[in-house]
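User: I'm preparing a small set of examples for a lab meeting where we compare how different chains pack in three dimensions. I only have the primary sequence for this one, and I'd like the structure in token form so I can line it up with the others. Please keep the answer compact; I'll paste it straight into my notes.
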Amino acid sequence: MGISYFKRQSHWGSVKGMANTQIIILAALIIFISCSAIYFYSKEQKKAKQSKTKKTEKKDKSREHYRVHVSIDESLMEVKKMGAVNVDEIIKVKVLDVSTGGAGVLCDEDFPLKEMVFVRIHFYLNEELFSFNGRIVRKIENPERKKVIYGVQFLNLSPSDETKLIKEITAIQNERRKIAIK
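Assistant: Understood. Below is the structure token output for the 182-residue chain.
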């Protein structure tokens, strides 16, 4: 056996030591790359989530339904119910704006909105009669004029009524564009 056997053993020992060092370095490199990938991925996910939140906030601020400003004087609003009390009172109102989601109306009456107020609103738009059930969802008081502006949300709008209303709103908008172009 002699000296050559021990030289071979020490050579293999140094090869094994180098292999272990390379494995450790390789493992450390894999861990570093994995951690970096996870960090950058989570950073991108956070940016995407913030961007989505901002888009949602912008969407929430914009109206769901296109609203057209009008001035329809001879309109009626039937106050059907205030809370649990049946009212059945008819009031003249002026429709200020309308969309498929609801209408803004100017009124002499001041209703307390502590309880839900259910109404039925009747108005003409381009010589078409519309009558919709709704609920008062907003109130803007104007003490100078002694009038109140109510936001009325339409309830249970049928698809045919919605289509008819969209048609008339679009007609008004198109007419206004023609006038603006001239």
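A couple of notes for your slides: The domain at 68-181 is CATH 2.40.10.220 (Thrombin, subunit H). The two ends are 111 Å apart (CA to CA).

User: Perfect, thanks.
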